[in-house]
Design a protein that fits this description.
- By secondary structure, the protein is an alpha+beta fold.
- Helices cover 22% and strands 36% of the residues.
- Strands 11, 12, 13, 14, 15, 18 and 19 form a seven-stranded mixed sheet that branches.
- The N and C termini lie close together (5 Å).
């Protein structure tokens, strides 16, 4: 049996939102058992809250958005991936803007924030969600599936037409140690030809060479951390999006999946799970 956990003390991080371009501070706070991961919009009257649950997803355009009443936050997946992979169950995140900091475009700054706070065991059993049969979401040439598996394994194939990207394949057993070494440092990817269109939609207003891996038509403009950084970041996104279902166990296999399919699978898992401890 595994016990629920929370962080050991309050810690803060200040930065800029990737899409909003707004300055933002997040404060991670210890939380009681069965709280889950909850965002509190302290910049709004009454500090309304929204829980990191698949049922609260309202948009998946370029990022995962959560809403409940007046509380709205988006681009939550990098932060949620850190909580999930580091096995932190309960935390209240006070946030004074609509979007967490992008930091360097990866989950690593959030891992380090959690490590700074420490992780403490709580007097309650962790609820582990294990599928009893294959569950799949498909759309055209993209899919994501989960198979019964004793652990969390993610196998992802990314296919991109850029000459420096092409087909990238990643297959990882997700543990805190593997996440820190192989997945958490992988940054979000951007393309110069998309920048103007994104900004016209009010997106990527805070994006830069300091918080994304950027490609032009022929070159990468940012030094890579991994030769296959794209597929590693795709796996990071899967971890963050599936955290919206809870503590999931299974073998996830995906081809060209993104936030829309990931979060749809999270909802499907919740509708077709067995709960174990």
């Amino acid at each position: 049996m595994q016990h629920q956990t929370t962080i050991g003390k309050t810690v803060t991080y200040t930065g800029i939102g990737l899409h909003s371009g707004q300055d933002v501070t997040i404060r991670l706070n210890p939380a009681p058992i069965d709280t889950g991961i909850v965002f509190a919009r302290v910049d709004l009257p009454g500090a309304p809250q929204v829980a990191a649950k698949a049922s609260n997803v309202t948009s998946t355009m370029r990022a995962t958005t959560l809403e409940s009443g007046n509380a709205k936050v988006f681009t939550v997946e990098h932060l949620l991936a850190a909580f999930s992979a580091m096995m932190v169950d309960n935390c209240i995140i006070e946030i004074d803007s609509v979007e967490p900091p992008v930091a360097d475009g990866s989950s690593m700054p959030f891992v380090e924030l959690i490590q700074q706070a420490g992780i403490i065991k709580q007097d309650a059993i962790r609820k582990i969600l294990a599928v009893s049969a294959e569950q799949t979401i498909r759309h055209e040439d993209k899919f994501i599936t989960i198979l019964p598996y004793n652990g969390l394994r993610i196998t992802f194939t990314s296919i991109n037409s850029h000459p420096l990207l092409g087909v990238q394949f990643g297959d990882y057993e997700i543990t805190p140690e593997t996440f820190i070494k192989e997945i958490a440092p992988a940054r979000t990817i951007g393309f110069m030809h998309e920048v103007e269109a994104l900004k016209a939609q009010g997106l990527a207003l805070g994006g830069s060479l300091e918080n994304a891996v950027v490609y032009d038509a022929e070159n990468v403009l940012t030094p890579l951390r991994f030769s296959d950084e794209l597929v590693r970041h795709k796996i990071l996104d899967v971890i963050g999006d599936l955290a919206l279902a809870g503590c999931v166990r299974g073998h996830i296999i995906a081809v060209k999946s993104g936030h829309t399919l990931n979060t749809a699978l999270a909802n499907k898992i919740l509708a077709n799970i067995i709960e174990t401890v």
